[in-house]
Every structure is written in C-alpha cells, then in structure tokens.
Amino acid sequence: MADFYQNGVVTTLHNLTNRSTEDLEAELLSFSKTRPLGLILPSLYSELEGKALPDIIDKIAKVPYLSEIVIGLDRADLDQYKHALDFFSTLPQHHRILWNDGPRLQALDAKLQALGLAPTELGKGRNVWYCMGYILASGKAESVALHDCDILTYDRNLLARLIYPVANPQFNYEFGKGYYARVANGKLNGRVARLLVTPLLKALKRVLGTNEYLEYMDSFRYSLSGEFSFRRDVLTDLRIPSDWGLEIGVLSEMHRNFASNRICQVDIANNYDHKHQDLSLESTDGGLSKMSIDITKALFRKLATQGYIINAENMRTIKATYFRIALDYVETYRNDAMINGLELDIHTEEKSVEMFAKNIIEAGENFLSNPMETPFIPSWHRVTSAMPNVLEELKQAVELDYEEFASKAKADATK
Question: Which Gene3D superfamilies does the entry mention (predicted)?
Fold first, then answer.
C-alpha cells in the first residue's frame, strides 16, 4: 500500500485502498456518458505473437466504458495486417488499426515528407503521433489513455486508474502520468529511471541551479513509464520526439503548455513487468545504451530552450556529479531490495552507471555538434495549418484499409 506523501509540484494520486476494478469501472461508465473515453495501443506486429498482447486484448474486451480503441501497427506486411484485423476483431468496442506500413498511410506520409512535416525516424514516437492524429480526426473520444502492448502483468485496474484522472469531470487534469514499482521475478528493475534519470536530474540541479523545469521533472516517480492519459485538446499543440526521448519529451511539452496543477501522476499497479531491453554495453545503436543517449539529449535540448548553456566544460562537471550521485543510489537501492527480499546485482548496477556516465558525454557531444537538429515531430496544429485536409485524409486511409481487408481477413481466418 502506498503512502499519501505529496512531493514536488505535481499532484500524486495514490493507491490507498486497493479499490476494486468493478467499482472504478462503474464510475468510469457513468463518466463516459458525457465524456467519451478512448485508448491508444502502439504495437509492433511481433507483439501479436508474444505472451503479453493476447492477454491484454482479452482483458480490454471486457472493459465497458471505452468508446474507441486506436491501434498503431508497425512492421507489418499485408498478410500480417490482415492477421491483425482478425486478432483485434475480438474487441467489441469500436476500434481501428493504423497500418503504418500500408500503401495508403505511406502515401500520406510521403505528402507530409514533401512538406517537411513527417516524422523523421521510425519507432514508437512516430506510431504514437499518427495515432494521436487519428484520435483528433475521429472525434469519438474526449479523454484518452495510452499504454504499451508488452505488459506481462496487465489487468483492467491498471487502465481504469490510468484514465480516471482525465475522465472524472470533477477533476481539472489535462494529463495523467502512470507510475508503479518496477519489480518482477524477485528483482528490482527499471535501471534507466533509477540509475540515469533520477541522479542526472539531481546532478543538473546541482550544476546548473534549481529551476522550475527540473523541479517539475524531478517530481515524477517514474518519468519513463509508457502509460499516460490526456484530454483530446492536449494533442493539437504537442510536439514529441520520435526516438527514445518520447516519454521525457511528452512531460516536457506538458510543462511548456500547461500549469502544473493541470498535470498529475497516478499509481496504476502494485506489480508491473514488461519486455526488457539489453544493456548494450558494446554498442550505442540499441538497447538501454541508445535509450540513455536519447533521454539525455532530450533533457539537454529542453534546458537549452530555457537559456541554460550546455558546453564541453560543464558537461564534464555534470558527468562527474552524476557519477557520484548515481553510485550512491546503487547502495540505496541495494538496501531497499534487501529489506524487501529482492535481488540486486551490484556489479551490473555499477556497470550500468559507468555506461550511462559515458553516454551522458556522448549525448552532450552529439547535442553540441548538431545545433540545427530538429528532433521533434511537428505539432498537429502546424501540420493542419500547412495541409488543412490531413486529418480527414488520415481517417479516410484507415477506413479504406479496414473496408478493403476486414472481410477478407475474416474469410482467411475461417479457412
């Protein structure tokens, strides 16, 4: 059971009573009559063949309050898209799949590329951005939750608690960030959040001085969670990164666009586990190594926009300060793990800190050597200004894909 302590500038909504899913869903169903609720699921095709997503869909199918489910499907050919149509057909709620690799959405992407408005990198950020565009285009949901498709410990209570802050008409929140303890199989997980983000934010405050943005970011208990919820009007002006900086970028955009009393974080799970990324000690092109670089660059970019000078001299100071703080946290987390009967490999923890410290320097060098880099996907407000019919074209492409292949998918599935 969580404590009731409020820290930082962002409201924390705790799990104090383990309120039943049935009770929460009954209340959400009443909210949905005047405030329609939706869900975004950004997915790789490979996740349809994994353990987590079939279980997630089976449970979402029993959720009574959703008006719309939008699935972003990446890395799928035609046969895989048709299989996805059949796979998600068990959902009784209105749902649509964005076949991001299909010719219709690729043609729309090419139009946006010609205007310099398309996402420049493949990945979750691009997938989420197009799903957000479809939410704007369809107009079926006023409040929307988004969560990953690889959650091995999923239950309906997670979704109910995640969407509740933006669904309840008595609340004024525009955005809710999910948080939870990263514990699974007797181990303490979440290394990037524990050993990179938290100590790096502390180091930045110590070196650059405390400011409103760093206090805001340091208020989040799990800033890297892939679970958040929002009111639809948030989406128009949101600029998000297309790389691993997505979660940090979304939080930064919320800070730019809204007062902190319109933002909250909510405890959504007692236990959470999902697909784990490799540490990737030998390469910065993938795994936690690339993730740490992208996240660090996202923080540096935001600080630079606020007038803070990031240069080679203070980069070394930031790295050294981070390294000392992070090593102290290793001992803290070891003790936390021990009192809870959990495993924590000190050697692996310190190897992670060493790699993150090295990658802070690499991220800084990359940031300094590419002053003209524009890593953010343009806001939908800008895109619709340049291409007024884009949302209608996006919706039409998705509908035409569905109309052309849904019946064929059902026929193929019965063969």
Answer: Spore Coat Polysaccharide Biosynthesis Protein SpsA, Chain A
